[in-house]
């Protein structure tokens, strides 16, 4: 068939393209396109010419396992600061319908296109961050990040653990805390917050930062502590990259939901025993903070040679506050 600009003028809302270079721009106001190869096109043409043709559009269905982690997705472990889990979160990024500029090279005047890549997943998360800030303007960036991470899902549409691109279970180094769940992030129950002091002490732990450089950032003097354990950085994920025998670290959680009693559930990494004290936290008001300690002990001397994974989850019957637990022996 030849490309034409009269489809829209005739009131058409779509067209069937058989091995054609026609685009939405060529089709005028027509916005729905069905692309067909020659063999199927001949069948369609014969059907159209032989009767009064009828067509219907049905909802999309899939028998595939979704979602799964794309091969191009970013991977851990963190090459700079091993104690900080990367990636933090994953979001939809494959075959995303997105707005494009009509002037963009190759757009052919289209207003929308289908794209894949981390550049598609990033605005998904940015949009959720904006919505959370609108809903909770008093939340800090760290609280928003915590809400997104601790409410993420690690389950697919078949109620099975999320898979990597190769069909194997995805580890936190592939999915971070899991796939983003915007509705759950709006009401996370508890969050892990961070202060300016926390960030400055974190920078102190990085050998390439001096107190003079910190002062230029902070705009006033800041003295680095004589000793600082990065394992205590109040992050929503817990990563211990060099466990030789045992270590105890702490976290502070802030209640941003209703008052309630949270009880802990731990999935221990293979070869690691985990003890949480206290194992329950009672919150009586919004904004209340409580501290818990986590002790990890290697069951064999030197700990596991490769990274092993677990999870720590706080539940009050309404909220589920979940954090990845990543450990490797020294």
Automatic annotation (TrEMBL):
Against Gene3D superfamilies, the record matches this protein to: 2.60.40.2310, 3.50.30.30, Peptidase S8/S53 domain
Record PROSITE patterns: SUBTILASE (PS51892), SUBTILASE_SER (PS00138)
Q: Name one Pfam family in it.
A: fn3_6
Q: Which residues form the Subtilisin-like protease fibronectin type-III domain?
A: 232-327
**Membrane-spanning residues:** none
- Peptidase S8/S53 domain: which residues? 50-178
Family named by the database record: Belongs to the peptidase S8 family.
Protein name, per record = Subtilisin-like protease
Source organism (scientific name): Thalictrum thalictroides (Rue-anemone)
